[in-house]
Inverse folding.
């Protein structure tokens, strides 16, 4: 019985490898090595042994280390990826990325043609390990990296969380709320939020920001604060896509230069599986403003946001709704909250847009291959079952 199933598994592996053929492509001209240490250059690339001339060897175990000066981060991504594909949920050959620079931490593993998306380290060190097993050789991979000094990045008024540094330059986690927004790729966040794709890319590798009620008290808040914006030359519009379940709240707040705050949008409507957009008018103001995006935890809630943007010009396709008053919360910081910061808790008219629903589907060719493999697997298992009985 066991021997028969081992033969079935080997046959499925063989089918996957035969089916896994990439179109002819142009390989980057990066000479491969098995490991290396990179400390003296601001940017560079490394690739698997044998690249680009031959496939990598079996039983490879290669460690690549990049180190930047203190205070810097390291941005990285793959520019070529063609290693052994995942089989029955397992990566037998893989590229493991330790973006903390610590081998004791859990790495993120990549295999097949799954590209390593643009990301950055949490400190000034990057470690990448490539391993291959005893069977099947593929062309390999290329990883490109570069030093980043976060302190000199210019602030931006739009943010989709998909840059090398997830929280866009100039945006900050507010100090006087009760906890922070989490920023993760959909494939990591989905186990907590149930949201399988971001809004920007519609894929599992896109990022979004989110909060959940797990481990929180009812009414706990998290706030993202934008860079300073100058809106003295006409009307502006703030857009944010959001997705929610349960009884939490989303608030948009205009923070004036004197520290006063106006609640200009609120939503407590569960969108469930749909991304919706709020488009909130920001009137012309002589003094600078900031936009705060506040999430309020419910008793059982999840809230995700993506694609925030402040753009010049009036909002389009808007309808009227009402801001729900909310109570003040105790700041998490032990420092005294600035006395210039006030909250406008009165009900006022605001604007928001009707739901916009988007869907993401697989490419027909990819879906066809998956369906074919699944059908073959079912037929083989059934054939073995009948042979045994």
């Amino acid at each position: 019985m066991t021997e028969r199933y081992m033969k079935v598994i080997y046959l499925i592996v063989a089918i996957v490898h035969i089916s896994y053929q990439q179109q002819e492509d142009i390989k980057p001209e990066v000479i491969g090595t098995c490991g290396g240490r990179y400390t003296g250059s601001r940017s560079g690339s490394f690739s698997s042994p044998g690249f680009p001339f031959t496939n990598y060897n079996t039983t490879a175990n290669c460690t690549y280390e990049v180190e930047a000066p203190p205070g810097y981060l390291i941005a990285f991504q793959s520019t070529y990826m063609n290693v052994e594909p995942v089989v029955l949920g397992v990566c037998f050959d893989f590229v493991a990325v330790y973006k903390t620079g610590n081998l004791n931490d859990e790495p993120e593993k990549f295999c097949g043609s799954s590209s390593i998306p643009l990301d950055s380290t949490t400190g000034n060190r990057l470690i990448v390990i490539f391993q291959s097993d005893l069977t099947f050789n593929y062309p390999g991979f290329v990883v490109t990296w570069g030093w980043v000094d976060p302190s000199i990045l210019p602030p931006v008024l739009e943010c989709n969380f998909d840059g090398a540094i997830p929280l866009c330059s100039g945006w900050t986690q507010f100090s006087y709320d009760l906890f922070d927004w989490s920023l993760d790729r959909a494939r990591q966040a989905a186990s907590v939020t149930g949201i399988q794709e971001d809004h920007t890319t519609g894929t599992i590798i896109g990022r979004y920001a989110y909060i959940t009620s797990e481990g929180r008290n009812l009414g706990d808040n998290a706030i993202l604060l934008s860079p300073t914006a100058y809106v003295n030359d006409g009307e502006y519009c703030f857009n944010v896509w959001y997705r929610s379940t349960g009884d939490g709240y989303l608030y948009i707040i205009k923070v004036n230069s004197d520290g006063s705050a106006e609640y200009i949008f609120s939503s407590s409507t569960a969108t469930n599986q749909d991304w919706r957009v709020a488009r909130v008018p920001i009137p012309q103001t002589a003094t600078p403003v900031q936009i705060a995006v506040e999430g309020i935890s419910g008793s059982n809630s999840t809230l995700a946001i993506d694609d925030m943007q402040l753009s010049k010009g009036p909002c389009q396709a808007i309808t009227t709704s009402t801001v729900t008053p909310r109570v003040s919360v105790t700041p998490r910081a032990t420092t005294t909250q600035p006395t210039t910061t006030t909250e406008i808790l009165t009900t006022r008219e605001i604007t928001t847009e009707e739901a916009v629903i988007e869907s993401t589907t697989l490419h027909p060719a990819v879906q066809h291959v998956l369906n074919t493999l699944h059908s073959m697997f079912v037929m083989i298992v059934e054939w073995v079952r009948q042979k045994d009985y």
Summary: Residues 364-388 form the longest helix (25 residues). The helical segments are 2-19, 186-193, 364-388.
